[in-house]
Amino acid sequence: MSDDGHLYTEANSQPVLRPGGVPTQVDRSPARVLLVGRVMIILVTVVLLILLGRVVQLQTYPQERLASKLGSQQSTRHLQGRRGTILDRNGRVLATTRIAKRLFVDPVLIVDRSSFSEKAGYGLGYDPVVIELAMAARPKSRYIVLDRRMNDQRTELLKNLDLPGLATDPVLVRDYPQGPLAGQLIGFVGAEGKGLAGLEQVYEKQIAATVGRVSYQRDARGRALWVEAGNYQKQTDGQNLRLSIDTVIQSIAEASLAEAVEKYHAEAGQLVVMDPFTGEVLAMANYPAFDPATFNKVEPQVRRNRVVTDIFEPGSIFKPIIWSAMTQLGAADPNEMIDTTSTGVHRTSKGRRLHDAKPHGRITWDEVLIYSSNIGMSIVAERVGAEKLHEAMVRFGFGKPTGSGLPGEIGGVVHPLKKWTHYSVTSVPMGQEVSVTPLQMVRAFSAIANGGMLRTPTVLPVLGPASTPPPLGVRVLDQRVADYTRSVLRRQVTEGGGKKANSELYDLFGKTGTAQLPNLKQGGYYQDQYVSSFIAGAPADAPRLVVGCFIHRPDKSIGHYGGVVSAPAVRQVMEQSLMYLGVPTNVDPDPQAGSGHMAMNR
Amino acid sequence: MFAKLLTALVLAVVMGSAVFNLRQQRLELMHEITGLHRQMNRDSQATWDTQVRIAKRTGPEALHEALARVGLEMEPAVSQAEVQDEPPMPLVDANYER
């Protein structure tokens, strides 16, 4: 026994206090320790197994009460992919997608209902009455949309407006930064984000995005914690679409077209700019223009790309096509004298009476085209015959779509031979009894400009680092005939009806056209309704561009001839576009002159 | 025996702690990744918005107006073509085969 009253056993014994403070001895034999150890191990194991079982149960079959709580701590969101951007040939944005803010009201969160509409309205620039009406229309809703797409100014104002009940929601919107530029060509997308017209529709598969999905684990306050494996599905952005359109040339084309249409109080107009060697369309303008962002505010016919969807009788601008084809066939020698009569009236072999605008007497075959003589064209056409004429038209691509791939493109009208009348042989060379689209006309004229190759027009870039060489095209004219036709058409601009298109800066070659509109109800033609056209290429020695301008129903009291109404617009577009492309001019342009100044400032 | 048991328990606790620590690190990383992912989404959406603003302000009409506003005179970047010895148009033989 020790001094403090503890009892000690052997070396492995410990003093144990008994009740009353008297220590007693504990059994520390190996057998007992082993037993206690085993019991402890078993107990710990059992506890661990119970815990493990509980974990497994929670992970696999949690109780309903817990499962509902666990579920509420996950939030699933859609990941919006970005629809492909539509770019011009130089990478300028024509159509793109961005996130806008949708403004809505949650009436439950409003603190002061009586003054809410006034505060929100005056604070953000809305009519308070409209807000009040919107809320009254859906009294039980917690999501009352006030503005589907807030503008930047209102978004900034909202940041400084502390008004409970107002909130925003991100929403994908399609934006057209250039406004109405090339609106009919680009088209538009609907509320669901799908392309409904134009290139937005045609290239839907390529530019459409796919939606992704992500499920966040959230904390008690709703903050995102993490994403479990398998709860993430990536979104895919759509591919960008690069066009052959040049925004600057498109802008020049639209401005010039609008100026011409408005000046002559016309109904509508189209203007096409094409590279004759590649078939690339550099500009495709329609008047009236429309902004794809507000497509539902304009009439459907305004949204139509009439460059490919509408046809018209081309009139005299068709003559270069037939003239070159007949020249190639050898129906007339360029220096051959043709009697177009001194009265300007001629009766064909089938008895049809034809007029020229004014009598020309005996003129050469070249002058037939230069002075746009209907009589001269009909005399030579009768030598060729219907079959060859029909064949020439088909060879130049008339009567079927050009293959541009633009939506709604039609092929125009070329009557089958069996439907030709006695008059057809003399009508077709004047651009009657045939209907074409503006794009078909520009395409066929491009064959004259490029040396005789008919190419498929395209709005996608042909030349470039990532693209293939231009398609070969189909030869429709001998190189010499095409070159010669060009030289004659140059004279049409300097001596004939296209004088208003004559430019000091560049040598244009072209052809005017003033076609009467057919009266579809009573037959014949209207005497006061026209399509005034001019189609030209430049520079004459090495053409870079072909421009066709087609203006429908100009006011006859102001002017209706193609050489008056459309030729100035074509000259303006040609001069500005060629200067923009850096094509050397014949004379130094005057920077103070409107056209040069305008081109460089664009 | 007790020492062994204690050692085993301590090791178990250490291992458990390590496992828990790793799990916590994993969760924190996942949280960080999630945050970064959301930030990336926000940034890319801001980039979209910026692209639209740039496109609007650099369009032909916008540039035209801006230049007119500041009164900047621009001269065409083209010059007169060199005088050519040859006539520009090919003069071809007029006798085509009939």
**Architecture of the largest domain in chain A in CATH?**
3-Layer(aba) Sandwich
Q: What is the average of the pLDDT values of chain A? A: 87
> Strand tally of chain B, please?
0
General form of chain A? elongated
Percent strand of chain B: under 5%
Discrete helix count of chain A = 21
| Radius of gyration over C-alpha positions of chain B, nearest whole angstrom | 38 Å
Spans of at least 5 consecutive residues with low confidence of chain B: 82-98
Looking at CATH, which topology of the largest domain in chain A would you report?
Answer: Beta-lactamase
The assembly state of the depicted protein chains is heterodimer
Helical/strand content category of chain B: mainly alpha
Judging from the principal axes of the Cα atoms, what is the shape of chain B? rod-shaped
In the predicted model, the low-confidence regions of chain A spanning at least 5 consecutive residues are 1-13, 594-602
Helix/strand/pairing class of chain A, anyone?
alpha+beta
Can you identify the CATH superfamily of the largest domain in chain A? DD-peptidase/beta-lactamase superfamily
How far apart are the first and last residues' alpha carbons of chain A, in Å? 113 Å
Percent of residues in beta strands of chain A: 15-25%
- Counted up, domains of chain A total 3
Described by strand count, sense and barrel closure, the largest sheet of chain A is: 5 strands, mixed
Description:
The complex is a heterodimer of chains A (602) and B (98). Chain A contains 21 helices and 25 strands. With 602 residues, chain A is an alpha+beta fold. Chain A folds into three domains: 1-50, no CATH class; 77-242, Penicillin-binding protein 2a (Domain 2) (Alpha-Beta Complex); 247-601, Beta-lactamase (3-Layer(aba) Sandwich), CATH 3.40.710.10. In chain A, strands 4, 5, 6, 7 and 12 form a five-stranded mixed β-sheet that branches. In chain A, 44% of the residues are buried. Chain B is rod-shaped. Chain B has helices spanning 2-57, 60-70. With 98 residues, chain B is mostly helical. In chain B, 6% of the residues are buried. Classes of the chains: A alpha+beta (602), B mainly alpha (98).
